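Hi team,

Filling in the usual template for the complex we talked about on Friday. All components are listed, including any nucleic acid strands or ligand strings, so the model treats them as one assembly.

SUBMITTER: L.P.
PURPOSE: interface mapping
COMPONENTS: two
RESIDUES: 384
SEQUENCES:
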Amino acid sequence: MAGRVSKMRRIVVSEFVSLDGVMQAPGGREEDTSGSFKHGGWSFKFHDDQVPKYKLDELSASDALLLGRKTYQIFAGYWPKAKDDAGFADKMNNMTKHVVSTTLKKVDWNNSKLIKTNVPEEVRKLNKQPGKDVLVYGSGKLVTTLLQHDLVDELRLMVYPVVLGSGRRLLGDHAEPLKPLKLAESKTFPSGIVLLSYHPAK
Amino acid sequence: MHVSLDGFVAGPNREIDWVQFDDALAEDVQNLVNTADTALFGRVTYQLMDSYWPTAADSPTATKHDLDHSRWLNPAPKIVFSRTLKNVQWQNTRIVKEHIDEEIARLRKQPGKNLILFASPTLGSTFMNLDLIDEYFFNINPIVLGNGKRLFKDQSEKHRLKLLESKTYKNGVVSLRYGRAS
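RESULT (copied from the run log):
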């Protein structure tokens, strides 16, 4: 799917999760220590040349990010100062960021816009605009909302071969009816990371 | 064991009707089971199994998997780990109340095939924390349950694993086999 511009813009949720479904702070020790989380930066223990390439292709297939407040704040504190040869940071900094928050007053990261109310409706509007994929990284709470409103066109999980034992889970307990999905792709990386990609079941 | 994409092994009312099982997966599960000669259970899983397998092969609607698995499971030595269970009816079953690691160490020293722990998430967490598990076999089902009995409950320790094999089935199940990270 990466690299192709589809006729209908899609909402693609792309996450790093541990084998026990934890999505908290994959990228850095101090990224998010809420709940006394002590495993911050867990994804960096797995070196794999193919993962950065995959993530860059994924980013190139999109032209906007959709983020929850918390993930936005973590990203806005990191990416503006980041630089890399592959151009990942440039792309992150330049692309449009749609930020869902009821509490933020303004968003300073280059090209960011706030969505304050009517989240499902606003996301549906986004989806109807022409363009590439809209990518959702992290943003656990927002992902739950999007799933509840059937607004996720693809759910991509990079499952790391580690059981963390604690931390915030991507799909935490919620009293929702069953959501069957359809496996779109599975792929194994040399480090033992498994990509599982799903579409909504028709 | 069968697990939903969000890490549940059973729904809030212990439902497992969401589990996708087809002939290809059944065959691989049976091949895995055939590498073992002893079944291990936690109390809850044991009681679920005990209510089904002793007579499963007698049913006129029994599937090939029912027949194959009955043939293996009913005569096999079974150990149920429980502090509360008083007695067991199922043939060739015994109860172990305590000293799990010593029991497993004893079993390991005996000649024979592998020991297989079926489902039993609570006991599985205990086994994990005691570092008793050599291999994990998960069938990831394409469904978000939202709620229920978790495969991995909160644990104090982090466990790094090594992916040994992954296989995708037509029904959308992805089976992942892990070992200990060296």
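MY TAKE: Chain B touches chain A at residues 5-7, 11, 18, 128, 140, 142-147, 151-152, 154-163, 166, 168, 172-174, 176, 178, 181 (CB under 8 Å). The first strand of chain B starts at residue 2 and ends at 4.

Thanks, L.
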